[in-house]
Design brief:
Elements (H helix, E strand, L loop, with lengths): L1 H38 L1 H38 L2 E5 L5 H12 L4 E7 L1 H12 L2 H4 L10 E6 L6 H12 L4 E5 L3 H42 L1 H9 L4 H44 L11 H26 L9
Antiparallel strand pairs: 1-3, 1-4, 2-3
């Protein structure tokens, strides 16, 4: 009874000892795998550069899409619906209509242009000011310029709002140029699909590159792996340094891609500022946010780990010590 109790205590102490030494072993193997990369600098640097460039391309395209969405949102918010009122509408009815439309949840702002103001502006812009003086009455109707909210600025929502506004009894006709909005949305969707397709292809290439690099490292240590198996090392113990190598490749490749994207954004920011100055406009190119940088590095680590895992699972199991 005492022997069983003491053996149970020994097993429990052995379990806790293994549990405590496991993180230390992981740290040792992670540092050891970093040393292996340091001992093959040319191969490691080339692999990191390929990974960094491969990840920088979709990250840069994402940056362009993000800034394009910022510009399109500004354009969308500036879109307006023009409502031409009936000639019989008096000033009081027009003002009541302005108040009613201002209460619409889809409307951000309503600007009223009276018939007299419209005629005055037309005289100035058309160049027929003297000829228009001979008209018996004002042929131009009062006009409302309705600015939708951000949510209602999209083409479908803007069309629905236009149909709703045209039903007002004082409105003779409504106009909304949604063709350019539709084209803009189609182009934005196309660019997003292209970015997604390119990103998937480049991510696949990252996995293959890491997997091939780890495969070569495994083949170079084939004899050492066979000896380790011969003395009783498990596959998981042998695989661990190679998995950490994939993690290191992902970390360094992700950091390099972030630096490359930041440098490219800084370079393009100057050219964009020169262009916007010519149009008396201001536009600030947005770079990657902190969350996006962290996400890019984490994604690079996942890809590196995936590539190394596929390689070690396939090749380390195939290495067996000679029975001699």
């Amino acid at each position: 009874m005492t022997n069983r109790h003491s053996s149970g205590l020994v097993e429990r102490e052995s379990f806790f000892r293994r549990l405590l030494t496991l993180p230390i072993r992981h740290v040792q193997q992670a540092i050891g795998s970093l040393g292996d990369l340091w001992r093959t600098p040319f191969t490691s640097v080339m692999t990191v550069f390929v990974l960094g460039i491969s990840l920088a391309l979709p990250a840069t395209l994402h940056l362009f899409v993000k800034n394009a969405q910022q510009v399109s949102e500004q354009w969308d918010s500036a879109s307006q619906i023009t409502l031409f009122l009936k000639l019989s509408t008096n000033e009081s009815s027009a003002q009541n209509l302005v108040k009613r439309i201002s209460l619409y949840p889809e409307v951000a702002e309503v600007h009223y242009i009276s018939a007299e103001q419209a005629l005055k502006e037309f005289k100035i812009l058309s160049g027929f000011g003297q000829s228009l003086e001979y008209l018996d009455k004002n042929p131009l109707p009062a006009t409302l310029l309705v600015t939708p909210t951000q949510r209602s600025s999209q083409s479908q929502a803007a069309n629905e709002l236009l149909a709703k506004l045209v039903n007002e009894r004082e409105v003779e006709q409504g106009k909304l140029d949604v063709e350019w909005l539709t084209r803009l949305e189609a182009m934005a969707n196309l660019i997003e699909d292209i970015v997604l397709g390119v990103a998937l292809l480049l991510c696949l290439s990252v996995v293959l590159i890491v997997g091939n690099t780890i495969r070569l490292a495994i083949l170079n240590q084939k004899d050492a792996i066979a000896i380790m198996k011969l003395v009783g090392a498990t596959d998981s113990f042998i695989q661990r340094p190679f998995l950490y190598s994939g993690v290191w490749y992902g970390i360094f490749g992700g950091l390099l891609s972030c630096v490359a994207v930041a440098l490219l954004a800084q370079y393009l920011a100057g050219a964009i500022n020169e262009l916007t100055d010519l149009y008396n406009s201001s536009f600030v190119l947005q770079g990657l946010s902190f969350n996006e940088v962290v996400l890019l590095i984490v994604f690079a680590i996942i890809l590196g780990l995936l590539g190394s895992y596929i390689s070690v699972r396939q090749h380390i199991k195939a290495i067996e010590p000679n029975a001699e």
